């Protein structure tokens, strides 16, 4: 792996997931979560503008105090808390926000076991916790993210976000040394550690890129996987596609800039 690629990996899953969650206002979060979700905010806000994440939380918590079993309100609250947590600089507060997101996502799956969005946001939040946790908790959260995103793909094989999570998890496991994988499996267990491969990482990231080609991050992460698989031509093509991706949100522009740097472009 090149020094720059290693630096990119070191920045961690939280930054990458920020793009999934569309912290940048240019990309509606619901569009990344799943294109067929319904919108409740017309009933929450009497204006045409979509509320900020913090305003959403206030509105959603107020509604949940009256309708605690409402499935959609629960997963929407999980989305909002996860989104705010990504931009919170205080690690303790961030953990509290993600704990609320986790609780809401768990409640959503309990109230609607077959609801796709609840399982998806539970996978996202578990991935976030896996990134900042250590030891057994990291493996436990990573395994939950793996299982939940796999469940989403069983329901909707065209879910780009779930493919992206699966690809990232496979890649993360493969970046561990064989000794570390063995010890983690021995001490903790977990489905995510079984059958991980660069081929599976490539498959899921390629599907995410095919399903949402406008997102530079999908192509960039695919390129990083091709680098580890020693496929330089495929890596270059993926980087070029990342540079030309149509979404212009700030996080996507950051991935385009990284791709340009690896390509040696000014």
Q: What's this, in brief?
A:
The protein is mostly helical and 266 residues long. It is 73% helix and 0% strand.
Number of strands: 0
Helix percent band: over 70%
- Quick one: CATH superfamily of the domain at 34-132? Tetratricopeptide repeat domain
- Main sheet summary: none
At the third CATH level, what is the topology name of the domain at 34-132? Serine Threonine Protein Phosphatase 5, Tetratricopeptide repeat
End-to-end CA span: 22 Å
Q: How would you sum up this structure, described in words?
A:
By secondary structure, the protein is mostly helical. The chain has a domain at 34-132: Alpha Horseshoe (Serine Threonine Protein Phosphatase 5, Tetratricopeptide repeat). 73% of the residues lie in helices and 0% in strands. It has 15 helices and no strands. The chain is globular, with a radius of gyration of 18 Å. The protein starts with a helix and ends with a helix. Mean pLDDT is 79; it is low at 1-48.
């Amino acid at each position: 792996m090149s020094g720059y690629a290693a630096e990119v990996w070191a920045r961690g899953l939280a930054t990458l997931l920020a793009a999934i969650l569309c912290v940048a206002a240019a990309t509606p979060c619901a569009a990344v979560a799943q294109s067929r979700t319904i919108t409740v905010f017309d009933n929450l806000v009497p204006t045409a503008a979509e509320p900020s994440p913090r305003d959403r939380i206030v509105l959603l918590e107020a509604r949940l105090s009256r309708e605690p079993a409402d499935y959609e309100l629960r997963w929407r609250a999980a989305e909002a808390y996860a989104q705010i947590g990504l931009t919170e600089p205080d690690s303790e507060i961030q953990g509290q926000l993600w704990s609320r997101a986790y609780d809401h996502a768990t409640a959503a799956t309990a109230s609607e076991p077959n609801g796709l969005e609840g399982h998806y946001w539970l996978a996202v939040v578990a991935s976030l916790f896996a990134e900042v946790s250590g030891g057994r908790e990291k493996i436990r959260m990573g395994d939950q993210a793996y299982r939940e995103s796999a469940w989403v793909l069983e329901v909707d094989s065209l879910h780009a976000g779930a493919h992206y999570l699966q690809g990232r998890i496979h890649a993360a496991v493969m970046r561990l040394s064989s000794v570390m994988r063995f010890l983690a499996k021995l001490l903790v267990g977990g489905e995510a550690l079984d059958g991980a491969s660069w081929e599976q990482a490539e498959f899921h990231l390629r599907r995410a890129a095919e399903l949402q080609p406008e997102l530079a991050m999908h192509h960039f992460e695919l390129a990083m996987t091709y680098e580890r698989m020693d496929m330089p031509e495929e890596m270059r093509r993926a980087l070029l596609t990342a540079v030309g991706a149509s979404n212009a949100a700030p996080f996507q522009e950051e991935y385009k800039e990284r791709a340009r740097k690896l390509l040696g472009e000014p």
